[in-house]
Every structure is written in structure tokens, then in C-alpha cells.
Amino acid sequence: MKTFILIPLLLLVISVAEAQTNYVQISTAKGKITLMLYDETPKHRDNFLMAIKTGLFNGAGFNRVIKGFVSQAGELDKTILDREKLHPEVPLQRVEAEIRPDLYHKKGALGQGRNDNPEKKSYLDQIYLVEGKKRTAAELDRIETKTGRKFSAVQRETYKTIGGSPELDGDYTIFGEIVEGISVAEAINSVPTSSTDLPLSLLKFSLRILTKAEIKKLKK
């Protein structure tokens, strides 16, 4: 049965990759990661591209690493919220939620962080890479019972064979995924951390938007 489920899953991944038009490369001391941004989440895609172009992520690093869950990068919640408290007269800047059931927290997914706002709007400059872990059918059943959300057959198979963090589905916007460098992302998620998940040494990164020629080569 698994063979018949995995074949359409693989075809779906290939077709999605062919359709997307924007790719970004993360360079770290651990290596490079190539991200495919989803055209289905245009507000987050465009915000991320603009943040890169304007240098919003300059000097940023992976600042919170929860092993087997996610690797968070960019600005910390506290810094963002403290800055906003200093200027309550300035309207909060957020990216409107673009949460879709077909874009979920599988291993290698790219998400946008947020605070506990009811609209589930995202921060402008905080991202995370999903590490997660493989889940059993019983674990997925428990998450469904707790959240009231149902996983599709494809999602269940993905979470059981590839892994991820399904408990985050429906609460945060996923707007891309890793297409190269998954082992680098695994290395980042394995760095030594404190008891509060702070990396003992900040792993800085730089971001670069791939050119059309590079994307064409990548898709071959």
C-alpha cells in the first residue's frame, strides 16, 4: 500500500517544484540551503523577498533551536515586542496569515514566526525551518482529536515517512520548503543549546535570491 501512496506523493512534489518561481539560498558555516518559495502564499513570499533586498535579515542568525522540532532564525519575539511597546503610536507591522491545509509542517518546510495574535499574522523578519520527527498513526490521531483538524491521506503518509511537526498545522503560515541542503538543516538543528533552546554560539547566515539562470539549472 505504501508504494501506491508514495508514487503520487512524489509526483505532487515534482509538480509543485516545477510551478514555483522564486528560490532563496541560505549560507551558513554549516553549509548552504536552497529554499523554494510558494507562489500560493504571495504575501509571505513577497515580504521575504523584500526583507532580503532591504537587508532586514543582515547580521541575523539561528537564535532558537528546538531539537527534533524547529530551527528559528531572524529576530527574537522579545526584541520585536519590546520595540513595539516603545512606540505604541505606530501601527503593528505584520504579514496577514496565509494558512492553507495543503501547505503543512513537513520536515524541511519553511514557516514564518508570530506572536499569539488572534489573526495569526506573521512577524516580518522571523522564519523557521521544520525539523520534526516521524509520527505514528496513533500520534496523528491524538493530534486530530486535540486540535479538531483532520490530516489528509497524503499528509498522514508524509508525517509517517518523512516526519515533521504536525501540531503546528493551522496555526502558522508555511510559505516554502527546502529543495537542497536538508543535511545542513539537520546539522543546524543539532547545534549545542542551553536549557532554554538558545544556541550556545549564534549561527549567523546570509540570504541570497537565486537568479533565473540558477533556478533554471536547479530545476533540470
UniProtKB/TrEMBL annotation:
Its EC number is 5.2.1.8. Residues 31-199 form the PPIase cyclophilin-type domain. The keyword Isomerase applies. InterPro entries: Cyclophilin-like_dom_sf, Cyclophilin-type_PPIase_dom, Cyclophilin_A-like. The keyword Isomerase applies. Pfam families: Pro_isomerase. This is peptidylprolyl isomerase.
